[in-house]
From TrEMBL:
It is a multi-pass membrane protein. Its main location: membrane. Mn(2+), Zn(2+), Cd(2+) and Co(2+) support activity to lesser extents. It is found in: Cell inner membrane. InterPro entries: DAGK, DAGK_prok, DAGK_sf. Its cofactor is Mg(2+). Its EC number is 2.7.1.107. This is Diacylglycerol kinase. Substrate binds at residues 11-14, 44, 58, 87. It catalyses: a 1,2-diacyl-sn-glycerol + ATP = a 1,2-diacyl-sn-glycero-3-phosphate + ADP + H(+). CDD domains: DAGK_IM (cd14264). Belongs to the bacterial diacylglycerol kinase family. The chain crosses the membrane at residues 20-39, 85-109.
Length: 110
């Protein structure tokens, strides 16, 4: 039953969050590139895992937003901080994948 709930959550996020679509496309491009480039299995795994982790953070960010909005839709400083913090987590995860790409590409060049 838990898997059903997980898929329901993912479907909801897919339908309501355009940012998940953007990260999904970024992951598709990233996956194609990492399989075309002559890199190690570890490097490939690191890039793929990082991309999936960004999607997971996006799911958590959506959960934070939903809970904050469920409590109250009025503007509150703590609510803004919670939403901004969730968004920052997604951005930091995305930056981590970018750094991983820099390391992988740097290894190919140098």
């Amino acid at each position: 039953m838990r898997a059903v709930w997980s898929w329901q959550g993912l479907r909801h996020i897919w339908r309501t969050e355009g940012s998940l679509h953007q990260w999904m496309w970024a992951n598709i491009v990233s996956a194609i590139l990492i399989f075309v480039l002559p890199v190690s299995a570890g490097e490939r795994g690191m890039i793929l895992m990082g991309g999936v982790m960004v999607l997971a953070f996006e799911c958590l960010n959506t959960a934070i937003e939903r809970v904050v909005d469920d409590v109250s839709e009025e503007r509150r400083a703590l609510a803004k901080q919670a939403k901004d913090s969730g968004s920052a987590a997604v951005a930091v995860a995305g930056a981590a994948v970018g750094l991983a790409w820099i390391c992988v590409l740097g290894g190919l060049v140098f």
